[in-house]
Every structure is written in structure tokens, then in C-alpha cells.
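Researcher: Please translate sequence to C-alpha cells.
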Amino acid sequence: MFEKVLIANRGEIALRIHRACREMGIKTVAVHSTADADAMHVKLADEAVCIGPASAKDSYLNKAAIISAAMMTGADAIHPGYGFLSENADFADMVEAHNMVFIGPKPHMIRLMGDKVTAKKAAIESGLPVVPGSDGDVKTVDEALMWGEKIGYPVIVKAAAGGGGKGMKVAHNATEMADAFTLAKNEARNSFSSDVVYIEKYLQTPRHIEVQIIADNYGNIVHLGERDCSLQRNHQKVLEETPSPALNSKQRREIGEIAASAMKKLGYSNVGTIEFLYENGRFYFLEMNTRVQVEHPISEMVTGVDIVRDQLRVSAGAPLGYTQKDIVFAGHAIECRINAENPKTFIPCPGKIGAWHTPGGLEVRVDSGMYAGYKVPSCYDSMVAKLIVHGRTRNGAMMRLRRALEEFVIEGISTTIPLHQCIITNPEFLDGEYNIHWLEKFISEHQDDIIEEN
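Model: Translation complete:
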């Protein structure tokens, strides 16, 4: 097992990794920007190293600074968390070149699944169902028009290196295709330094459903069920739950087995998440995230598996130690992402936190690095906490979530707690009748119901 792990991240995920390490007897090194000098994970880590100014490109994205900090402190592994360098194959190569372990999959697997064109080809070869689309990147408008006719409109033009909704444009007919193609390529070039795009059939009312897997280096692999991540705004997840209210037991068993089998064929090891679009009873591979996910806690709540702990174990070369038969799914879990944003306008609201009181009680979990007096910086993602609840049933979890949101006190900044309170009382959400477009429509129709002060 590792003796010392450097955590190349910040916020709640850095604290989550620190806690897992501490429970395993592993020492931790926190790296931080000047803006995060007072962060909770920095205070709790065994050692802390400042790696640069507030700007992420000069600190958390500074590969050389992170490697130097790891070597200086004698770390034998680096955990990248999510975001930042977590899916950067070049960084993983650098870590290995300096005789340290990158806590994640091998660099070649990150490269394979990080490019959506090669990932789709790998998905087809490994047996995953995919959305009908082009057989590779599309280089010209004429080629785009050909694929539009072949696939059938509407279609979506996507950046191969895309993420977060960038480099994605929908064309409902041939007339719209030229503009969609050009705009997608330009946006891809500006966002990802690559204008490679491909084309797929545009599913109009799908749900976003993903499957969590864990695999060791010896061919052992399990899945931890599915998560429904359909509640999104601007392609960013807002609330997740497991199991999905849209699936029956046969469907969730089948998609879990398909995902695990495909990753075993691919030779994948470490944690990962296979994301699907689900519409009219059919699953379509969307992409794979080769890292721990923001929403991993809800899978932990229904299975009892500590995903970060097991990620550390398999990265250190230990066998998984259990099989699919040992995974028992119990109850229902929901996660709300609490952001420092105006709940109506979604304008970020950084600032100093006044009173801070987190909800408690049976099967209530809050993942956060915040505390009273902490100043939320303006230069990073606005998420300040994840509220996770578990219940024996979906209704039980919903009632617990309602109570927990009422108890959550964050003063000094605006948060999205009122939005969550509004969502979970809506009859359509309570009935599980939602898709990836539902939340944006809900927000536009219920502005007056969202109270700005929590």
C-alpha cells in the first residue's frame, strides 16, 4: 500500500480523498493555490505545498509544479480527483516517468476514452450499444450533409474532445447543417485546441444514465449499479439519484452487466463510469469518464462500497477482493449539488461564509470543505457542498432530503438550495417523469416559485 499520497485537487473531493487515505493509514500531501491557503483539506493534510497563484492554469493545472511538490515531499502516488488533470494522459505519463503511481487508469486508456471518436469505436468493438452516427470524424460540410441524410434529422455535431456541452450543435434539417457544423468546429477549436467533430442522431427526450464500475489489474470487475443524472442545466448535472426511477430490475441488471463486460473486454482497470443516453427502452453509449465522479457518493450509499478506498487499493496493485455476487443494492440515494450561485439567475456568488450548519441524522451525508468564516473564491467551480441522503425507498429518501435541505444553513452567500427545494416538491419529479431537458423547462416556468434567500 502507498505510504504517502499527494492530492492534486481542491475542495470537497480533496477532502474526500484525504479522509479515505487517513482511514487506510496513508499520509497525505495537499497542494493548493494562494487562494486556497485556508482550505479545509490544506489544514488537515500531513503536509501542504503552495503550487502557484489563484489561476487554475498556474496552479492546479501546472503539471511541473505538482510533480515537483510530489518529489519534494516524497509522495509515492498522486490522486488527481476529478476535473483539472484527472483525465490528462500526458500528466499520467509524467507521474509514471517520475516513478510514482497515477491513481487512475493507464495513460493509453485515458487517451482512448478521452477522444469521443476513438471511444465510440472502442465501445462498438467491446459490445456497447451506440447512437447511430458517423464512422469517424467529419471534415467538410458536404460530408456532414451526407451523414445528415444517412442518419436522418435531427442530428447533433459534437467535438471529439468535447465536454460540458461545448462544441455541440443540433441541426434539425439540411438547411441548418452548414451553420451547425461550422459553429461546432469553431467552438471545439477555441475550447479544446482541436476542431475534430463527428455526427450522431439527436435523441430528443433521453435520460442520462451512467454505470459505475471498479476493476483491478487481474481481470476482476464489478459494477455498482446505475445513476440517473438527467437533471441538468447547460449540460451540467444538478441532482442525481440511484436507482433510476425509469428502469425496472431487469433493465438495470442488463445494462450493468453489459457495461462491466465491455470494460473487461477492453482491459480496463481502476474506477470508471460509462455514460448512456436512454430513450424508448434503449441504451446508447455516450462517453466514459476515466476517473472518480462527483456523484460517486450515491453509489456508495446503496452498496456500502467505499469507491475511493477501493480505487486506492487497486491502484496499489491489490486485488478487488470481492465479486459481483457480493454487491448488495439496498434502498435509494439522492445527491444535490449545492452551488454558490443565485438560484434564479445562476450568477456565481463567491464571498465569505457567515453561519454554516450542515444537516445531520440517520443516512444524511454532506461532502464539503466549507466552514464558517471561509471565503469562497471566485476563480473555481461554484460547488460548495454535496448533500447526499439515503432511504429504504425513493419516497423515504425524498422526505429525508426535504428535511435535510430545510436544516442546511449557509449565510453570507447565495446558494442553489432554494432551487433544490423547489425541484423536489414538483409532482413530475416526484413521479420520476423527467429527462435531460426537463430541468431547464422547469426553471423557466417556475421562476416565481424559487425563493432567493434560503
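Researcher: Any highlights?
Model: The two ends are 44 Å apart (CA to CA).
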